[in-house]
Write a structure and sequence with these properties.
Strand content: 5-15%
CATH superfamily of the largest domain: Winged helix-like DNA-binding domain superfamily/Winged helix DNA-binding domain
Number of strands: 2
Largest sheet: 2 strands, antiparallel
CATH topology of the largest domain: Arc Repressor Mutant, subunit A
Radius of gyration: 17 Å
Structural class: mainly alpha
Strand order of the largest sheet: 1-2
Number of helices: 5
CATH architecture of the largest domain: Orthogonal Bundle
Helix content: 55-70%
Number of domains: 2
Shape: globular
Length: 130
Amino acid sequence: MIEFQLDAGSGVATYLQLVQQIHQALQLGLLEPGDQLPTAQKVVAKLAINPNTVLKAYRDLEREGLVQPRPGVGTFVVRSLPGTDPATLNRFLATLTDWLNSARAAGLGPADIEAIYRTTIRNYFAEAVA
């Protein structure tokens, strides 16, 4: 089951962060058709957010045809998103994990690592477009 995390400093609305995390989990194969999403009550208890925020995220996902609520039972994934080959994902996950371990060993914290990552992504794709 997915464990949501919020980034209060991201500037992204809370419900959109939930939607994005579901999209990412679907793309990575962490969620598949038939999987149940956490109940709104569980998400509210864990993240201390308004239940309507969770329900709005789930409604957006339902409109996209990705999930379907079952009254009295919960909300279930009904469709996945195109993803990448699992072996390819695992190879890059291992590489990224090694890099993160090196960055932490060098004394970099989460904010430093995120800044490096975001700047590199932005620069790489700006060059690819140019």
